[in-house]
């Protein structure tokens, strides 16, 4: 039996990061400025802290200007809005990311709408969503996880994805919907499945490309996946792992990885698949945002 291709997100992220580093050095040489990223974290969510630390580390490694604002969970909405106003007006900050989810007393969409679209490195502002869905993605900032997932697909299958059947499982604003928009623009035939989808296994069996973004550990079984299909597992689920020691945990995706190995064409592991791409695409967006704000926009998108 042939082994499936393991899509090495960590290695691909490293090549993307090198390219960002080169371009950031060019920007520094011509403008004297470094891309600046502000990450805002409200409340103490241990999972979010891992991601925020990793963003901070990667930004520092690339020589970006990086600031982190950690606010208590009890922070009032008006205080958060005020901070965003300050970051919007700060010329050294080119990208603003507010870690989600926010505590329930804060109106998430109100916060996201206040971020200047040109600084919205998550790509969640309605202006960026509109540019992406209306086919003007070269002028948008594109959400990091779907954009990173698309790069993994192109590195695996080649740049022409046209005509392939793609099934996206999940319809969130962060992953599922923008992923579907991107694949549609690549001329895939796109199906978006969700919790009300009937006969999910059969829907998935028709897919050449499966993107799983559900948040349910190993929900998608191996025998739902067509022979030779490419699987992008976005899910990150932390399960207890007593075998590793008391209180230890392990990460698993939304796809039963081992059951897929005998017949898929290629698959991303968890960890080491989509996650590392999310972080580097955030850096790519921060660089793009900085170049545009400093009057040095790219002739064409970097990625
Ligand atoms: N690797 C990375 O960089 C990132 C990973 N993630 C991970 O990806 C996963 C998804 O995240 P996110 O999109 O934010 O999650 P959400 O909870 O916002 O969305 C989950 C989606 O899955 C659908 N769903 C839930 N149960 C089922 C089911 N039984 N069958 C089919 N569809 C179902 C929901 O449907 P409905 O709309 O009908 O409720 C919803 O659309 C999580 O594990 C998250 O941790 C997220 C962001 C980045
Ligand atoms: N405004 C906002 N933007 C986001 O992009 C955003 C967010 N909020 N909230 C939470 C989710 C989740 N997310 C991840 C980023 C990196 C990894 C990552 O690097 N994962 C590593 C493993 C990390 C570990 O060991 O925990 C991997 O998969 O290899 C995972 C998940 C971004 N999100």
Automatic annotation (TrEMBL):
Ordered alphabetically, the record's keywords are:
Amino-acid biosynthesis, Histidine biosynthesis, Hydrolase, Methionine biosynthesis, Multifunctional enzyme, NADP, One-carbon metabolism, Oxidoreductase, Purine biosynthesis
- Where is NADP(+) annotated to bind? 170-172, 236
Q: From its record, what is one biological process in GO terms?
A: tetrahydrofolate interconversion
The record ties this protein, via Gene3D superfamilies, to: Leucine Dehydrogenase, chain A, domain 1, NAD(P)-binding Rossmann-like Domain
Q: What is its EC number?
A: 1.5.1.5, 3.5.4.9
User: Which GO molecular function, any one, fits this protein according to its record?
Assistant: methylenetetrahydrofolate dehydrogenase (NADP+) activity
Q: In what pathway does it function?
A: One-carbon metabolism; tetrahydrofolate interconversion
What Gene Ontology terms describe where this protein resides (cellular component)?
cytosol
Q: Which residues form a coiled coil?
A: none
Residues forming the Tetrahydrofolate dehydrogenase/cyclohydrolase catalytic domain are 7-122
Catalytic activity of the protein: (6R)-5,10-methenyltetrahydrofolate + H2O = (6R)-10-formyltetrahydrofolate + H(+); (6R)-5,10-methylene-5,6,7,8-tetrahydrofolate + NADP(+) = (6R)-5,10-methenyltetrahydrofolate + NADPH
- Domain spans labelled Tetrahydrofolate dehydrogenase/cyclohydrolase NAD(P)-binding: 143-293
Regarding protein family, the annotation reads: Belongs to the tetrahydrofolate dehydrogenase/cyclohydrolase family.
- Describe, as the record does, how this protein assembles with itself and its partners: Homodimer.
Q: What is the annotated role of this protein in its UniProt record?
A: Catalyzes the oxidation of 5,10-methylenetetrahydrofolate to 5,10-methenyltetrahydrofolate and then the hydrolysis of 5,10-methenyltetrahydrofolate to 10-formyltetrahydrofolate.
Identification of the protein by name: Bifunctional protein FolD
Species annotation: Roseibium limicola
């Amino acid at each position: 039996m042939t082994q499936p291709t393991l899509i090495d997100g960590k290695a691909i992220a490293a090549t993307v990061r090198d390219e960002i580093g080169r371009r950031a050095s060019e920007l520094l040489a011509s403008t004297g400025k470094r891309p600046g990223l502000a990450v805002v974290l409200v409340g103490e969510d241990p999972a979010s802290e891992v991601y925020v630390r990793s963003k901070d580390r990667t930004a520092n490694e690339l020589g970006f200007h990086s600031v982190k604002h950690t606010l208590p969970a009890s922070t009032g909405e008006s205080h958060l809005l005020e901070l965003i106003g300050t970051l919007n007006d700060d010329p050294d900050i080119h990208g603003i990311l507010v870690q989600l989810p926010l505590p329930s007393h804060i109106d998430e969409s109100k916060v996201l709408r206040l971020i200047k679209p040109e600084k919205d490195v998550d790509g969640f502002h309605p202006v960026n969503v509109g540019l992406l869905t209306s086919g003007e993605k070269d002028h948008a900032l594109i959400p990091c996880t779907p954009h990173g997932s698309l790069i993994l697909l192109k590195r695996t299958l080649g740049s022409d994805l046209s005509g392939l059947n793609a099934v996206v499982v999940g319809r969130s604003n962060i992953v599922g919907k923008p992923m579907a928009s991107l694949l549609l623009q690549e001329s895939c035939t796109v199906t978006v499945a969700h919790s009300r989808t009937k006969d999910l296994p059969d829907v998935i069996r028709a897919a050449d490309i499966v993107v799983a973004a559900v948040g349910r550990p190993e929900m998608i079984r191996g025998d739902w996946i067509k022979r030779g299909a490419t699987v992008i597992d976005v899910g990150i689920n932390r399960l207890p792992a007593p075998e590793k020691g008391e209180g230890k945990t392990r990460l698993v995706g939304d796809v039963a990885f081992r059951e897929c190995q005998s017949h898929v064409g290629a698959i991303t592991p968890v960890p080491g698949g989509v996650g590392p791409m999310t972080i580097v695409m955030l850096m790519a967006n921060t660089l793009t945002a900085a170049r545009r704000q400093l009057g040095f926009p790219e002739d064409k998108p970097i990625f």
